[in-house]
Amino acid sequence: MKIGFLGGSFDPVHFGHLMAAQDAYEQCQLDRLILVPAAQAPLKPNEVQSSAEHRLAMIRAAVEWDRRFEISDYELRRGGVSYTIDSVRHFRALYPNDELFWIIGGDQLPKLHLWKDIAELAQLVEFIFLERPGHPVKAGPDIPGLRLRRCDGHLLAISSTELRERVKRDLSLDYFVPHKAIVYIRERHLYREQP
Known about the structure:
Largest sheet: 6 strands, parallel
Radius of gyration: 16 Å
Strand content: 15-25%
Shape: globular
């Protein structure tokens, strides 16, 4: 089987994340695609504002109807800083005979050499990088054994940071975030200033 993994803070999950997942799933003809919310991203230490429970619930609300996508709470249960290498070792043990792909944005490619244990990581997974129209990706770093697969991504300039700001300013999340996730955010008053 060909299994793809898309990690991220998903705080909140938005159509940029889901379009990236779908692009990789379709173009690389994956059999499964697993979304992996991070407890804490190592290169973005202040990125997460919602609890693991809320972020997991938002992702579930967003994709529960879509049989192509699954969710792993491995990094959330583990806690602490979420290094890709730790997750990949876990998934490699779970799926020893499958082809594993880690999906990244093209903007991450020049930073790959900074990833923890990247030499081992390059042996364990193939990377799918999304190249957006009009944003050609600069060549990846010279890492022995690194396998890269290019994927045409859609140009959706959406950031979770911007979406959290929209909530604070009482602006709509419609057309940015799946409706069920919006309802979840509203009902729990997420991203609002605490009194």
